[in-house]
Design goal:
Layout (H helix, E strand, L loop, with lengths): L4 H18 L4 H13 L8 H22 L1
Helix pairs in contact: 1-3, 2-3
């Protein structure tokens, strides 16, 4: 049985990384928050295309990264 601290922490780190990467693609939430910010006048209309682009990019990239770290 290997009880080296680095061995145990490596397993925890891998799980933390998987959960963290899995949470990146929260596109629908980001779009709702951006729309509410726009409606309240906190976000310019010029920024909405950038928000949509980032949401699309993270939605596409996240599964690719998850596949590599699983």
């Amino acid at each position: 049985r290997d009880v080296a601290p680095s061995r145990g922490l490596g397993d925890v780190y891998k799980r933390q990384l998987q959960v963290g990467v899995g949470m990146v693609s929260r596109g629908e939430v980001a779009l709702i928050v951006a729309q509410k910010g726009y409606d309240m006048g906190l976000l310019d209309a010029d920024l909405m295309p950038a928000v949509v682009l980032v949401v699309i990019a993270t939605t596409i990239i996240t599964p690719i990264i998850l596949k590599k770290i699983m």
